[in-house]
């Protein structure tokens, strides 16, 4: 159990690297799934286009949603977006940063699937075979006297080599459509690479301070949530231990004596353990008080301004921003009111 706990703590401390690894695994899985997937075009005019385009669009949507499901920051983003303002205002730039980071990671696997599908060309051939002009591939007598419906049925059978009799026409049409599909695949890959290059090249041209500020507070929100959950677990564990101990003591003093005797611990050790559990309660010993604490945390989170206790009575309870601001030459830790515009490009290190 300790090994699993250590592994979980390691994954939490290296969440960004872990999520990048998850995205890489999903990208490889998408390519592997396509290679294992048995493509079977229906070879019917009314279903070819639907089946081919569904294979190109539906799996990427599934991979995209799966990327959101596997990302822990989705719940953090939703909680920060929906929480009441209270004493802590919500910064839209932080929400944008978190959303862009999640979205960019979730787009990796869908992009790999689309590129692999277009490079292979089977779905493209199935979807657009009915749009071919068969006269361009020779043997004009093949379609002489055919109605429009019969011609569509003939073109729809091109992806199925066991249903199309004229193999030379089928091979020529297949190569033609696959060339177009591969060209589209290379264009998509080039556009994605160029977009990623532009993002990385343009980002240093914007204000780095705004980006660092947004990145810092997004990490803070994630860490604060984890530490609050850990503190709640510690408090619940201590609350349960103290409650159970008091329950047995209230039933019978003899039962409490027997419990201490059979536990194999000295009274001093038990007293220290009891005091430790009492300290972890942080003065909250009633169910209604704990419910109020949890409700206040959700509805009115504390302001992000820490108090520093001073030995001097006048400075006791003031914000440490005043001391830092005086040392920096500013009053109350803030700069003069100067209109500034901050711009930042949001991206994740993938």
How would you describe what is shown here?
The chain is elongated, with a radius of gyration of 32 Å. It has 350 residues and is an all-alpha fold. Helices cover 68% and strands 0% of the residues. The longest helix has 44 residues. The chain is built from 14 helices and no strands. Helix 3 packs across helix 5, helix 6 runs antiparallel to helix 9 and helix 10 packs across helix 12. It has a domain of 188 residues.
Please outline the helices and strands.
Elements (H helix, E strand, L loop, with lengths): L1 H12 L1 H22 L11 H23 L2 H10 L9 H15 L1 H13 L1 H7 L19 H9 L10 H36 L5 H44 L1 H11 L3 H14 L6 H13 L21 H8 L22
Helix pairs in contact: 2-6, 3-5, 3-6, 3-7, 4-5, 5-10, 6-9, 7-9, 10-11, 10-12
Question: How far is it from the N-terminal to the C-terminal residue, by CA?
Answer: 32 Å
**Rg:** 32 Å
Shape: elongated
Q: Indicate the percent of residues in helices.
A: 55-70%
Number of helices: 14
Average pLDDT reading: 77
By DSSP, the count of extended strands is 0
| Approximate strand percentage | under 5%
Membrane topology: Multi-pass membrane protein
Region (Disordered): 257-280
Subcellular location: Membrane
GO molecular function: monoatomic cation channel activity
Outline:
By secondary structure, this protein is mainly α.
